[in-house]
Amino acid sequence: MFAPLSIPSRARLLVYSVLFAGTVILVKVSVPVPEGVQLGRIFFWTVITFVLAALPVRLPGGIVAHTTTAPLIAALFDTGLPNPFAVCWIAFVGTLEIRDLRRELPLWGTVYNRLDYVLSSFAAWLALRLTAQAVVPDDPLGVVAQIVIAGLAFSFVNLILAVSLASLRTSTPFGRIWSMTVSNVLTGLVALVPLGWLMAEIAVKVGLWAAFLFMIPLYLARYSFSKYAETRELFFGTVSALSQAIDAKDGFTRGHADRVSRIAGAIARHMGLPERQIEEIELAGLLHDIGKIGVEDRILMKPARLDPDETELMQRHPIYGASILEPSTSLKPLVPLVLHHHENFDGSGYPDGLKGDDIPLGSRIIIVADAYEAMTSDRIYRKAIGHERAMGQLNRYKGVQFDPQIVRALEKLVEKRGPTAFEVSDLPPINYETLAELKRRLARDPLIRDAHAG
Ligand SMILES: [Fe+2]
């Protein structure tokens, strides 16, 4: 059954609109069926589209990319096809993916994606038709203008519909998905448009068979998308592993850095910062204490108060952190944020004693998130003090340790989301014990020597 209930309520309006508009267009272009339809030619482009759709690349933010733009643009420019009838049906049938055939998506998702391609192809056809009068045939500039117009119309509708649904489905802001996914592969996607036009030219002037040769550059284009996705995954995986390593060494509850990162990111978003900066703050939140790797365990794990020498050594961790991140091109932008995450608003912090707005905004956000997280989660040595008291402390020290506008932003945010908003960690469970726990356990039940051990 086509269960409306399985469509997330946030996305219903968008999904129903696309289903309605897409169906109307499919029916409109098919009634009456154009005369002299060459089914073989439609079949050819459908197969090429289908083969390329079978090689999807999963990009961050819930977006799936493939190189089907090229054959769809080719079908649009193929003068042997009765358009818009042909291109709309090629888009509808040819873009079916393996995951659709395996029913990995709900039916509405499968139909939505197909109709996204129908609407994109129809928009491109409409754009071509509306501008056809103004373009002189066979004039090279006119041809380029038509490729640009068709490409823009296709990509605009296609990406807006795909990103909007991903945004509503995952409750991720549109701008975030756009900046972390689309903006990085946009050049690759746009490059498929002229390639599609060239495929059509070759198919018309040389023959359909020659268009097959384009599968090679299209496969290479797909390879570059997949490399981008892999590199990004590797990068975030590494950063996350590093941050968990610090939590483990520090004796913090697992997920401390992860929660600091999420709280800092939520504050940054609440303050209306651009998505790129939010991502930087989140990464810096994950790695803010990375410099503790350079602090001796006897100081880091000391159950009693640190003496002045030990305090001085401990207070070097932001500097160590900055120097660990410095050599990496991707992590370099985080250096100032990590270096200054213990600067107090009144200038009494370390390492540089920066004051007020001289402290990077990201560092001012991280120090608030760090303090709030530490106060609201249980530690081995003490219980959480709860949201109310934690906010009380933050308010008490605003203007001294914390930037008042950031404390206010956090307060508003928690009012909106509730104090449990940051409790659940998204991290996969990893069973490790902190050094302190391990020492206690070994003291209690020493390891039994392995029979093979020398
Ligand atoms: Fe720190």
Key traits:
single chain, 454 residues, mainly alpha, Arp2/3 complex 21 kDa subunit ARPC3, Hypothetical protein af1432, two-stranded antiparallel sheet
Blueprint (SSEs and pairs):
Blueprint: H1 12-30, H2 39-53, E1 57-59, E2 63-65, H3 69-77, H4 85-94, H5 98-101, H6 107-132, H7 140-170, H8 174-205, H9 208-211, H10 215-250, H11 256-270, H12 275-287, H13 297-300, H14 308-314, H15 317-325, H16 335-339, H17 361-376, H18 387-396, H19 404-417, H20 435-444
Antiparallel strand pairs: 1-2
Fe (ii) ion binds next to loops.
Protein architecture, described:
The protein has 454 residues and is mostly helical. The chain has 2 domains: 4-228, Arp2/3 complex 21 kDa subunit ARPC3 (Orthogonal Bundle); 251-444, Hypothetical protein af1432, CATH 1.10.3210. Helices cover 64% and strands 1% of the residues. It has 20 helices and 2 strands. A hairpin with a 3-residue loop joins strand 1 (57-59) and strand 2. The chain is elongated. It starts with 11 loop residues before the first helix and ends in a 10-residue tail after the last helix. Fe (ii) ion (FE2) is lined by residues 288-289, 317, 341-342.
